[in-house]
Amino acid sequence: MNVLILNCGSSSLKFALLEAHNGRRHFTGLAERLGTAEAILHWQTATTKQSEPLPTADHHRALQRVAELLSHHNLLADGLAAVGHRVVHGGEQFAHSTRITAEVLAVIEACVPLAPLHNPANLVGIRTAQELFTAVPQVAVFDTAFHQTLPPHAYLYPVPYALYEQNGVRRYGFHGTSHRYVVQRAAELLGRPLAELALVSAHLGNGCSATAVLNGRSVDTTMGLTPLEGLVMGTRSGDIDPSLPQFCTTNSATT
User: Fold this and answer.
1) I need a surface site. Which of 12, 20, 136, 213 has the fewest CB within 10 A?
2) What burial class does residue 230 get, using C-beta atoms within 10 Å of its C-beta: 0-12 exposed, 13-18 middle, 19+ buried?
3) CATH for 61
4) Which of 143, 220, 239, 241 is catalytic?
C-alpha cells in the first residue's frame, strides 16, 4: 500500500506517493505559481520526468490533475493506505498528527486568522483529497504540534494574560515537522539517544526558524504567534524594532 503526501503552500502544491512500509518514492512533483497564467506542474516517476502548463489553475485543479496522472501511470492500482496533509497551524489543540474529522477541519479553519496564507490552502487540499479519495483516511500533520512541549515561560508573551486566555495570543512555533526530523537524524548520526541530547536545530529556506530541543522536546523556538516572527526570511523580515515602521514613515515624510 502507498501513502500520498500533500503540502499545499500559499501558491504551490508539493506531492509524493510513497510506499507505506519503506518510504520508497513512486511519484513526486510540484505545482507552482498557482492562481496565475504561469501556473505549471512538474512531476517525476521512476522512469519519466515531465512538466505541463496549468494556466490559472488553483490548488483544487492542480490536485485533480495529480490524481489523473496517478491513474494514468497506474499508481493507484494497489490502493492508498492514507493521504497525509502538511497543515501549518493547529493552534493548541494538536500535539500529534491527527486523523481528519469534521471537528479537526473546524479547528484548522478557526486557525485561519493565525496563518491566513497557508491554512486556507491546506483546507482546499484536504477537501479536494476527500472528494477524490473518498474511502481513504486523511491525516493532518501540523507544523505547530512539535512545539506544544514549550514551557509557559517560552510560549507566553509579556502582555496581559487575558490576551492569552481570551484570544490565544502566544508563541506557537512552526516548521515542527522539519525540526523533529532534523534532531532525530542528528541523534542517529551522533550515535546517541535523542532523549539524552541538548540540540539547536535550524530550518533554513525561504522561511527560516531555529528551535532549542532538550531530550527530544521543543523548549524554545524563534517563530511566534504567526510564522512572521524570528529569523530574517526570504519574504518576511523576522524580528524588527517595533518603532522602526513609525520611524521610517516619519522620516520619509520629512525628507
Assistant:
1) 20
2) buried
3) 3.30.420.40
4) 143
